[in-house]
Amino acid sequence: MYPFLKQAQGPHRTSLSFFSGLLDYCFSEKSLQVIRIIHAQLVKGLLKSGQFEAANCLFDKMPVRDVVSWNTMISGYASYGFVNYALGLFLQMQNIWVRPNGYTFSILMSLVSCVYHGKQIHGSMIRSGADLSNVVIGNSLINMYGKLGLVDYTFGVVLTMKELDVISWNSLIWGCHRAGCQELALAQFYRMRTMKQLPDQFTISIVVSVCSNLRALNKGKQIFGFCFKVAFISNSIVSSAIIDLFSKCNRLEDSVQLFREQDRWDSALCNSMISSYKQHGFGDDAVQLFLLTMRKDLMPTEFTLSCLLSAVSKFFPSEQGSQIHSLVIKLGFELDAVVASSLVEMYTKIGSINDALIIFTNMGVRDLITWNTIMMGLTCNGRVSETMDIFEQLIREGTEPDRVTLCAVLLACNYGNFVDEGMIIFSSMENDFGIKPGEEHYAYIVEMLSRAGKLKEAMYVIETMPYAPSFIIWKSVICACSIHEDLRLTERLAKRMMEMEPQSSLPYLVLAQAYEVRGQWESMVRVRTAMKHKGVKEFTGYSWIGIKDHVYIFEADQLQHHGGKEIYLVLKLLVWEMEEAGYI
């Protein structure tokens, strides 16, 4: 008898006692096959209830551990997110020469998150003699390589398969779509049709999503017509994808019409419509639709709450965000990674960075999106030193950064004037993290060097970068030129920027200001006149403030129309009081 069986308490006591008695009987009858089954079921039950220590103890004491037992342990740890431990068990299994079966590999392939592990598992399948032409195993491989973005490998797997079913095609099209090869994904759909394979609703939803990413409205309409032909239009998954297509192609009115024509609402449909309203700036409509779904007893999903939080951070006062946060807690979604990430993003956008940090710290599982969100939020709220600390923590925990992570770090170095740190990270991106610097990374480095007055170094980076310098990159340099009084370089850059974006007012204004500072009034007037003749308009800035349920937006010089005189008098009074108190 095992010690933890004697200590069983509560509702599991009877079942454990039953199993222990049954084990005694089986030992007496020498029925090893039944003993194995009972052991496996006990292990499975303990893993499901999260009792990993007890499961390990029982697993270690099993007289014979066959492939089914190992699969149970690997699957149990995988279901709780302990991926590394599950992979470790697979290695132990191989070390004692237990041959994995198709189910073992299907579990492992669903866990893979890096190319190295994926290729290792594929190699292990080949060595173990797995039938790679089998449609189930082949589909798992296609799905794994599609998730990893290795499109060439997905086609390599397809070529080894004797037959393809609808799942094979769906996985192949989805893999191309996920890797950003949208035209290739469409080509596979047309190839699927030529081979007389009938698509299902998942095929159609993926293809419509491809059309959405391409903003290919005409192709999307053809798929829409096909949906009527095969009676898929009543399927909520397909309808949701088409609503999203219309929205992304700036046809919100068609999204609304299709939504209204639906006989029955579900979470998928409502989520698509809420997301569409949010994307087009109709935050109030998104919230109203959400309230309507609640009245119809349609419980919000993680995606619903994520959309709402995103809409609130853009269009509503912070009180609305706090209310949705309370709803998140009430519905028990506070530990969900997607919702928690959205809460972090919302609080960073409205400036409540301490609230964002509390949520981030309390999260059990953090994906890379969450790390990137808090780092970018800290940077944009001026807490650049903490951004660097978070980045170091991410590296210590073994999480691989991506392009966005390094954007957040380089932007922090830019804002914090951490020139040396920024150059070290930028120079080691490819060697340390396998990420080739993109145009956005170069833009942050050029701006960092320019703001630090290192114009020669900034120009050298521009001359050696593998991309043609964009308007944004020149913008960083020309603004620094005007500060550091390099008129000749300012004139040269202004001319180039005027050619790149003729309707941008920035080069004209910077050049005019440079002439004005030096007292070159004729040159200043000439630039202003040229700007007027070419119809270039100055960018109008605005600010906004939320009061109760309304957001008030003020454009530049518009304040006088909203009781501005009284506002300025109050501001003067406040400044006077601050001076008296010694704050100014």
What does this structure look like?
The chain contains 34 helices and two strands. The protein is an all-alpha fold and 584 residues long. Among the domains are: 294-364, no CATH class; 542-581, no CATH class. A two-stranded antiparallel ribbon has the order 1-2. Strand 1 (542-547) and strand 2 form a beta hairpin. The model is unreliable at 1-14 (pLDDT under 50).
Features:
2 strands, 2% strand, 584 residues, mainly alpha, disordered N terminus, two-stranded antiparallel ribbon
> How would you sum up the global shape?
globular
Mean pLDDT value: 81
Q: What integer value in Å does the Rg equal? A: 30 Å
Provide a count of the helices.
Answer: 34
Q: Distance between termini? A: 78 Å
Strand content: under 5%
User: Strands across the major sheet, in which order?
Assistant: 1-2
Structural class: mainly alpha
Can you tell me the residue ranges where pLDDT is under 50 for at least 5 consecutive residues? 1-14
Biggest sheet overview: 2 strands, antiparallel
Specify the helix fraction band.
Answer: over 70%
